[in-house]
Each structure stands twice: as structure tokens, then as C-alpha cells.
């Protein structure tokens, strides 16, 4: 049997490259819907992934090893096994914990261009080497959601532009967490015409200066939700300024789980996007409502902050739905932040809920604003 289809990494090699022997590293649920593989054995039996061919959702962990052994067929024409890929039920795929040559990543995407894959997650990967020249026309999958968590790229700031050229247009949700570089090469980056949700959560080193570099101007014309949970943001006004430079007009802005402070006196005012109607400032350690917020909002979330009194009307925007749950002034037994600065001043239930900071920001947005994805 030919070895060229081995470029499909951990999904197709069991069928086309090796015989079935052991099924232990992979498990499929009773409904043949989800398949999970963990190849941690020093000599992994890749053939165990055979059973994943029937699954809709596949998650494969490579055990941190290099996948160079699959390079032999990376330059093959995927048309010769296109019918097999088209027949897959696969819709959601996660590839994690491996060292992957860039040539193999692009070959992988090219092969998946014949699939019906909609959601791709790359996690804990080290992408090594230089990728081949991008195609004149995208040949990769038509994804709706792309999630990248703790992925390093040897190509530095050009990595997103190079990855983008392999994907067919239509990406709606882009989630980049624990990134090694978010200073994108804006000149090389093409427009994301359909992207409605950009989630840069769980990048605590990003900050407002980094956000200005990441929000390449005019590249996100359809953006409706900008999610910046635990992203090193300092003030709402600073985030407003970064959005103004980029020209983005989101409806929903999530700044929860940042250590926010009030805008410094004398700081220049910022004109908020006219489309913005939902602002999440929960879990941000706020002792007072920041000045300079948008004049009008449909939703303002101030849950689980350190407000020791109910905000006055003149301190708030004109807002239809204001959430203040979990602030000390609503819980007589909660420690008062100003009276006892050595305590956190956080209501106990909020302290427990703060574990949600590791939760995907995109998931949080989709739970609240389901129509964005």
C-alpha cells in the first residue's frame, strides 16, 4: 500500500500505512461520536487510531514526540485519496502535544481540504522549520472555528499570515491562547472577511500595547465579539484606544478576569465603538465603576468585583441590563475592601468561580451571545 497518505498525521495512517494491531491508546464512545487517543507509549501503536475513522469528534495527543516520521509522503498529491477523506464523518479535530515540521502542517491542511472539518484545535505544539510557499488559492479546510493554544512557530510574527493562506475563506471564530507571539505581521496578513469572534484570552502578557499590535487595522471588518479574558488589560479606556486604532466595531467586549483599574485623571477621552452594546467587566478587582465607559449599553456585567456600595446613576452608563451580583455591598458577611485592605474583598462564591479564568473565552461568549458563531 502506498505511504503518501501518511501526511494525514495521526488520522489516516492507521488505514493506509500500518496494519491494525492494538486499540489500547484510543477509545471511542458508545455512540461512535467521539474518539480520544493518547500516544504516550515510548513506541506508540499508531494503528490504534483506526477506530477514529468513524468518529465525528477526534482528539489526538502525540505524547510530546516529533512527528518527522510522517514526512515521507508530505509532498504527495492528496487528490489520489480525496474520496476517502470526503467520506469521513469528522467535524471537530484536536491535535495536541507534539513537535511538528511546518511542511507537515501544510500537508495536513491540504489533505483536510477535502474533508468536512469545521472546527480545528492545535494545542501544545511546536511547529519547526520553514513552511513551503503558500498556494495561489487556499486548498485547506473551510473551517468555522480555529483554536490555537500554546503553539510556537519558527516563523515568528509571520505565522498567522502563513497559516491563513492555507485556509479557505469563511472562518468565523479565531481563538489564540498562550501564544508565543501576537505581534502579527500586519502587512502580510489578509482580511478575515467573515470573522465575528476574536478571542485572545489567556495571554496575560499581551497588555494594551500588545493588543494594538495584534488588532491589525482593517483586517477584521465583520468583528462582533472581542474577548480578552485574562489578557493583561489595564484600563477599559486603554482597550478602547486600541480598538479605535484598529477600526474594529465589536458589539460585545469581554474584559473579565483582568486586574483593571480606573482611568488615570487627565487621560485623554476615547470614543467607544458605536456598535458596542455589551461590556463584561466581571472578576476584575474593581473598587469603583471606571470613568469614561460607553454612554449607553444594553448589558454591563460588573459581577464579582470589590464594590462596597451600590453605584450611583451618574457613575453608570445608560444600561438596560446591569449585573452586580457577587460584590461585597450585596453580601453583609463579605469582607469590606476599604476597611480591610489585607483581604481580597471578594465574595466567597466569586472566589470559587474565579477558577473559570482558564475556561475558553470563546465558549463564555457563545454561551451569552449564541448568535455570534
Written description of the protein model:
GO terms for molecular function: lipopolysaccharide binding. With 373 residues, the chain is an alpha/beta fold. It has a domain at 1-195: Alpha-Beta Horseshoe (Leucine-rich repeat, LRR (right-handed beta-alpha superhelix)), CATH 3.80.10.10. 16% of the residues lie in helices and 20% in strands. It has helices spanning 13-16, 82-86, 102-112, 159-164, 207-214, 236-246, 348-353, 361-368; strands spanning 26-28, 34-38, 57-66, 92-101, 119-128, 145-153, 173-177, 197-199, 225-227, 252-254, 278-280, 296-301, 318-323. It has a 13-stranded mixed sheet. Strand 4, helix 3 and strand 5 form a beta-alpha-beta unit. Helix 5 (207-214) runs parallel beside helix 6 (236-246). The chain is elongated, with a radius of gyration of 23 Å. Mean pLDDT is 86; it is low at 1-23, 337-343 and 355-373.
Primary descriptors:
single chain; disordered N terminus; 16% helix; lipoprotein; Leucine-rich repeat, LRR (right-handed beta-alpha superhelix); alpha/beta; 373 residues; signal; 13-stranded mixed beta sheet; disordered C terminus
Task: Indicate the topology.
Layout: H1 13-16, E1 26-28, E2 34-38, E3 57-66, H2 82-86, E4 92-101, H3 102-112, E5 119-128, E6 145-153, H4 159-164, E7 173-177, E8 197-199, H5 207-214, E9 225-227, H6 236-246, E10 252-254, E11 278-280, E12 296-301, E13 318-323, H7 348-353, H8 361-368
Parallel strand pairs: 2-3, 3-4, 4-5, 5-6, 6-7, 7-8, 8-9, 9-10, 10-11, 11-12, 12-13
Antiparallel strand pairs: 1-2
